[in-house]
């Protein structure tokens, strides 16, 4: 870190959000920035999640940057390896490697009100920045529930996002805890290998067939020769999902036909009526994320699989015990229990103008102006912040909208001139959040009758955006200075800024 003691912008994280921010900074003519990454390579969640079967549930041509189309996607829904390779390609194409600071975990960020800058402590040394862009993402820190006796389990225990590739599952008795997007990919991938698989299902998921296929060589040649066809394909995928939004946000009853198709999917794949009953949710489809798999239900119907319709409540030696009292002897426990989404650990490390952490500011629930800015944390912006998540489309669309907002934020600072900072006004944040929460009241995520990771500990939806991606892009096209307080350096310390060493 010696060559950069101070930068204009520090970006935290090198997944889609962080790399996207870096590209946008370069395209805006800003080169005085670093990307701080705690790992030894880029990729974010697509680096960390390399479990068997890991793939995206958004079509490849929509799950990529509009400014970096990829004519070479090999499948309609890409696997983890191809997505990670794409992010490496973006890093090289836009010459981002000189800006990367790998193995540089952020330990603490503190706002310096006297100098209007962020003081940042990292595992590779300190630095300061005028602006911080937090792109750590909500799917970065695994969540493992506290289970009595888990610490004394004699076998292997790991989370889907920290897969133990040194442990051979062949012939083992394996417990999988959870039935989310990761678990439904892991189960059919490991079921043929293990001697016994016990799935602990606290709540069943709605699962639709995965319409995946190889993208032919002819299609790829067409996309290489005529780049507009890639954009056309992306546009079609985007349009379909935009038309679906009102069923999730305004008229959940319109999801009835989709739920009927999901029930038919269960009936076709699972002939045992007892198992079928276990796997059929009792809440409206869409309340939790609709999952895609054509192999999950068939795997559960295999003779070496037991589905326990209850959560894991206790571990006694090598015996795992469900909340309903059922038991199983296992050699390994795999947690597919998601991430710290509504209580992101990075919030504990950000200290604002009043000396309180972001976690303390969010103790009653996360909220941010247009999903980006928080009062008392000047010149700090988050990518994929509160209420920016999507239930049916590509998060890359939201990221690109937030990059527009970031670019205009930096332009406004340039227009203001001198040493200046922008701090979101509490009233503006409160007004934005009240409008978002009002719209969420009628959505399927709030009314569908389920408990999901979209909701925080108090049952408040602090995760999902209740509209189309077009609406979000309009809302984040420009920074409204009326929503911010302009801060200036106090006169007694209004000295020339430090330059890079």
Automatic annotation (TrEMBL):
Query: Which SUPFAM superfamilies does the entry mention?
Result: FAD/NAD(P)-binding domain
Please give the InterPro entries that the UniProt record associates with this protein: FAD-bind_Monooxygenase_sf, FAD/NAD-bd_sf, Flavin_mOase-like
Q: Which key words are in the record?
A: FAD, Flavoprotein, Monooxygenase, NADP, Oxidoreductase
Q: Which residues cross the membrane?
A: none
The organism's place on the tree of life at top rank: Bacteria
The cofactor named in the record is:
FAD
GO MF, one annotated term: flavin adenine dinucleotide binding
Transmembrane helix: is it a keyword of this entry? no
Q: Which Gene3D superfamilies match?
A: FAD/NAD(P)-binding domain
Give the UniProt family note.
Belongs to the FAD-binding monooxygenase family.
Record's function text: Catalyzes a Baeyer-Villiger oxidation reaction, i.e. the insertion of an oxygen atom into a carbon-carbon bond adjacent to a carbonyl, which converts ketones to esters or lactones using NADPH and/or NADH as an electron donor. Thus, can convert bicyclo[3.2.0]hept-2-en-6-one into the oxidative lactone products 2-oxabicyclo[3.3.0]oct-6-en-3-one and 3-oxabicyclo[3.3.0]oct-6-en-2-one. Is also able to catalyze the sulfoxidation of methyl phenyl sulfide (thioanisole).
* Name of the protein in question: Baeyer-Villiger monooxygenase
